Fold this protein.
Amino acid sequence: MTLDKNFDPAAIEARWYEHWENKGLFRPERDDREPFTIVNPPPNVTGSLHIGHALDNTLQDIIIRHERLKGKDALWVVGMDHAGIATQMVVERQMNERQQKRTDFTREEFVEKVWEWKEESGGTITQQLRRLGCSMDWSNERFTMDDGMNEAVLKVFVDLYNEGLIYRDKRLVNWDPALKTAISDLEVETVDVKGQFWHFKYPLADGVTLADGRDYIEVATTRPETMLADMAVAVHPGDERYKSIVGKEVVLPITGRRVPIVADEHADPELGSGAVKITPGHDFNDFEVGKRAGFAAGEMLNMLDGEANVCQTADGLVPDEFIGLHRFRKEGVDGARELVVQRLKEQGFLIPHISKNKDGEEIQHDAEPRTIATPFGDRGGVVIEPWLTDQWYVDAETLAQPAIEAVKSGAIEIVPKSWEKTWFNWMENIQPWCVSRQLWWGHRIPAWFDENGQIYVAMDEAGAQAQAGAGVLLSRDPDVLDTWFSSALWPFGTLGWPEKTKDLERHYPNDLLISGFDILFFWDARMAMQGIHFMKDVPWKRLYLHGLVRAEDGSKMSKSKGNVVDPLGLIDQYGADALRFFMAAMESQGRDIKMDDKRVEGYRNFATKLWNASRFCEVNGIGASNTLAAPKAALPVNRWIISEVVETQRALDKALADLRFDAAANTIYHFTWDRFCDWYLELTKPVLQGEDAAAADETRIVAGWVLDQIIVMLHPFMPFITEELWHAMGERSYDLIVAKWPEPKAEIDAQAKAEVDWLIKLVSELRSVKVDLNISPGTKMTAHVRDGDDELEAKIARQGAALDRVGRLEAISFDAAPDGPSAQIVVDGATYVLPLAGAIDIDAEKARLTKTLEAAQKEAKSLSGRLGNPNFVEKAKPEAVEKARADLADKEAEAERLQAAINRLG
RNA sequence: GGGCGUAUAGCUCAGUGGUAGAGCACUUCGUUGACAUCGAAGGGGUCGGGAGUUCAACUCUCUCUACGCCCA
């Protein structure tokens, strides 16, 4: 097989992916090997691959391919999330386009349509993950609503209920009036918006007055409409202004409701008038105040329906003109808020806000402008309404304790460690988790009610009926569970739980979880809680959190900003390998990644470089190696490159073990390009083309082996090009994806390393001198060595061909240089005098040498200064002192030779 | 208000208790038959400000400033 002149990623990617998948190589049979397990964060069935997925999945694939190459039974579990709200919204939107709505159908019909949509259009992302090269186990692809997961979800719900860790409760929830469902605290996003602060007079009942004679109490609010459901006015118990009226009542304007004045710490005497209106049914703080004031949750007045329109309160006091109005101005139409303000103003209960304009004139406003931290639903996008309903709650506080302990004890290692604090802070202040959703798409809650409202929780209706007794009429709770309730079970539900399967036994706990920090609470924390509770062990031993991929300017990517980068476009342009390598190289712990196309292009170039190096090998008879261990080698350059492989592999393994993806990528990148391509292949050209057949054979064998090691070590990062080259370089008995990770069984050869390092330094100096003296790079030169020894002479003899070919140094003599113009270089204690044909620019050469001399002198001076400090010699580590002494000697010797060289110039 | 993070070359970022590195960009040169998606040689930073610990700090501590994120 001959490699094409140009590398075309598109031509090979699909072919290799299909090959791997069809041959089942993502999950080879390895029951006898050590297991290694990662579960993929199940993407939403509605989703398509975005740049964040590309990062997340590339990192996971690097790890799983690395472990697979190391021979482990590497399992990467994959599947999709039913994404309750998101999916229901997609299908409803499509219905709207056809002038239909969800409620035109029965629940069963609607759910059936969602399934149809899921089968037809859902899961685009799974094809896109394949394009990225991700080697997950598709043969066992899961879904959060497949039979096995259903079973797991039901069991978890029933068990938690029976243990008292799931309960039904009436309290305020975050209600999304757009989606008409409860949502959890995490799904609420608080945003600062410009709003207004109104001040009202609430008249005191029964002729009561304050000390100053006022017959009203002043309250202020950002939500005037809720006064229709006010049930109290609170003042601080220590507030002297109001002490006399605690226990008295006010008569609310508009409704005429008589409500008590209560003392409660919640009222801040410093804020406004110090008195606050209390609406327990529509405000979380007021709910608590209401409870303390003795109202039961069931007594708290509700004035809004599920769409946040005004409805009549239980006491019937809301005037008809308010009924049906939206809570506030919506789509240009005034709502209850505006009408309340208008009526209060008309009736003289509004206290105007006075401001001064720039001329010092007073201006009256209805309200004071103010920035208000306002809760929005993350999906529905409208203001959340605290609403009093019956919902199901998980006792998260109890479940969190072992999850906190797991991180404290090290059973779970969080990487980077800085996230531990966030984990603890959240877990230690965790609130009950509202898990019921008023949706149709999702896991229906396995709870049944009888006609008296008695609850029966069971795996199925028969079980509930058995509990209730024959003949009792039961109806099932219509609600479904929060999507995250099921994905929390992913690390064990996908392995067969509650069945005791072999997979479950072998692959739980998972070894590693890689996720973005944005789902730390939503998903990671809940997996930890559920996993530990049901499996009695942590879900994963390590948790790696990565950042966000940002736009080139550092801003967050969003559709509305139009700055979203499509990973598939990048794959089309540069190849999947280049995009993957970019992700790895940019992933340093604890930092977001800024998108940079130029850098992706750079890694495309890297792939091309490797391709061309392989072509060079191919035409020089270098091919697939037949040994895993490093070949025996005599030539220093071969011994050197083998040592470099050993060092590279050590550094790479360490970086991957530490989850330092950037260090790992850079290690293999620089070895391949700088060491192998730029030096090794250049230095061995004269050997390959030389007379010494034995040396050439050795070099071909070593070069083939090194290229193999590169291909294997690079495979986790760039799976496609490496698999292509693996096969192109020779006959293989297995595919690269299941090849063996390097085991060079060789040590670092210090002697060879020193020799090649010297050679590289000398060649670099030779090149440098030519540029400085304006000598054409191809010019062949001769050198006369001063201060050389036998060892140097031997080295020069061994490397003569390389010096000639790569250094353009055709002869080296140990005789004194002839008189006449020459350039001089100093390398490792010897001076090389390079006679030049014709005149040279003496000043340029002098300047060049002087610059080098000054650098050496500067360093020598700094070192001698340090060594001259008795404190340094006494207190510093002996190694540091030794090194300083050695460095000083070197630098002084170098400076001396350079000075001599300058002197010789006259 | 609480917590976390970041400030290093023009840009994007690594980095170590012993006076700094990469990629891109920039400058100059280059057809030594793998590669111009390339090669060679360079220029460019007192590592945000201040104080402290230390023989020695870009690296540790404190503080200030700026920016970002999360929570309340």
Observations:
- The domain at 33-165+395-444+479-547 of chain A is CATH 3.40.50.620 (Rossmann fold).
- DSSP finds 28 helices and 32 strands in chain A.
- The CA atoms of residues 574 and 604 of chain A lie 6 Å apart.
